[in-house]
Amino acid sequence: MSPLHRAQRALAVLAMLCGLVPGCAMRKEAPFKAASDDDCYNAIATQIDYPTVQPCGALEDDWAALPPVTLSNPDDIEYWNLGLQETIQIALAQSQVIRDLGGAVLRSPAAAITNLDPAVVETDPRFGIDAALAAFDAQFSTSVYGEKNDRALNNQFFGGGTRLLQQDAMVFQSAITKRAATGTQFTVRHNTDYDANNAPGNQFASAWNTNIETEFRHPLLQGSGIEFNRIAGPTSTPGVYNGVLIARVNTDITLTDFELAVRDLVSNVENAYWDLYFAYRDLDAKVAARDASLETWRKIQALYSSGRRGGEAEKEAQAREQFFLFQEEVQNALSGRLIDGTRTGNGSGGGTFRGQGGVQVAERRLRMLLGLPPSDGRLIRPADEPITAPLVFDWSEVTAEAVVRRAELRRQRWVARRYELEWIASKNHLLPRLDAVGRYRWRGFGHDLLDNSPTLGRFDNAWGNLTSGDFQEWQVGMELNLPLGYRQAFAGVRNAELQVARQRALLREGERQVLHGVAGAIADLDRARLVSETAANRQAAAQQQLAAVTAAYEADKAPLDLLLEAQRTLANAESGYYRAVTEYAVAMKNVHFSKGTLLTYDGVLLSEGPWCREAYADAAELQRRRGKPRELNYASASAPRVSQGPYKQQPPIAEALPLGTPPKPAAEDDGVTPTPVDDQAESSLENPVASGVEIMPTLHTAEPAKQVPFPPTAK
What's the pTM? Predict the structure, then answer.
């Protein structure tokens, strides 16, 4: 060993010792002090902290600055008259989060639906459409490594004529890989390496090797074809399918979920609107009954104070009790109690009318659905009256429309189609993996990489030798991978078949339940119409009864009990009439809900919202830079068909059904003798509200259809 090498080794050992001395010194630490009781650790580990997030609270912009309207602060209230169409418009404009009356946002925020959900699913970097297409994008990879080798060899043959090999080396690699829709993988690769060593058998002390090679790998059986790759993507695992068709179906399922959420929101808004309408009408009836009982109490109180006949103490107390009874009902009808109102899914798909009353509670419930603050100094008051004219649906058309347009069934069809695509892809795994592989390589060798030297001949530089084409190589072959037994593949196919059978059974059962729901909605609509007619006749009879009893009481021909009973009967009849009318409006809405035309019925259309201005500017700039390539049709006849085209949200309006003009109720006559009502007579009762117009199935589309914007998605 030369003195230079001994000196270098001594310096290396000295440097290592110097590095270990401070390292040992730094390992000296203070002794660990542990507490004998673990209460202090539990207190720190279980304490409640507040996260550091960007504040977005509703209190910062005085969203709920005003206290709610209650019975104790009967200040002057400004009434806000709202029509049903305007109410739905406000709800859709204020609903980035689709609200419901069940409090899902607080109980399970992850299950809440927002208008960002379709874009979130489509831009998912794992299972979105762009994620599926990214598997077919070109991939560029490169690497550069340099190394110094200094080693002793036992056999000088492996050292090129020396047993002490000293080498300086560098390796540079770069490649571009692209996978086609057929499953073929193309690769263009460039390799360059530098080697300088002391082997005496070398032609040059330092030399460069470079090569450029192209490679293709085409699956002939498993993984081959446009159909499989568009469904499953470049995967070789049964049951894992993340192709562009599966991603597209998942996006369509999310769009259907969003449509269902919007439909439920519109249904709940309409339910809350008619709840508030009934609350006002119920309050009016109870206020009228209270005022009438107050007038009766005052008359009896005057007789009681003067000691005259008819002012006995028991009669005064009886009249006073009825006044306070109606006063209690007025207070409950004005404020209301915190119980469930009419909402989607309570008894029927669209919601069975509850009619609990309570103006303030119903108004706050409607405000919550509209995204408005609990109180802003105004009290919402419905401006629209419910439709009381008879509405007739053709049963065959309703059932056909429900099976086609019901969003739940369309969603289930998408799910069934997804599993059908997975079943098609699963059968591909029953084939062996047979790939055709081919490579072609051009090599170059030289003393330098690029520098020309006329004294070195043909090997003066590697790139010059490469471009001369003197050294060319090729390789063609086949690779076979065959799992014996195909246990996993057969399990995947069987599982896919069972999933398809399950989804088809669910679809079939869903169609049956939808038809049951339509039948119930049609029957409830007919019941509500007949009940509203009966309630109207009852109201007219109660008014006649009160007028007759009042006249008899004033003529001293009827007792006080009969007068008070007539007042209560009229109050109940008026409240029952408006309950029946509101039930008819809700039942009409529920028919459209059950047959899947509620959004069309209310004039709501779904569409993708506009992109930001910068996106349009970038698209225009990219289009300007793009050349004029030859147009190619990338459609494949062998690719499976996923959908049947866009869903028509606004079908042609059905023909109007001519309805007869119902007869007017009989004029008030105290001498009319009631007759018994048999079953046929009861079914032939007509609505006392005169209406001779033709009724269209779509009733609320007078205004232009509203557009519910979808958020922009990555294309």
Answer: 0.79
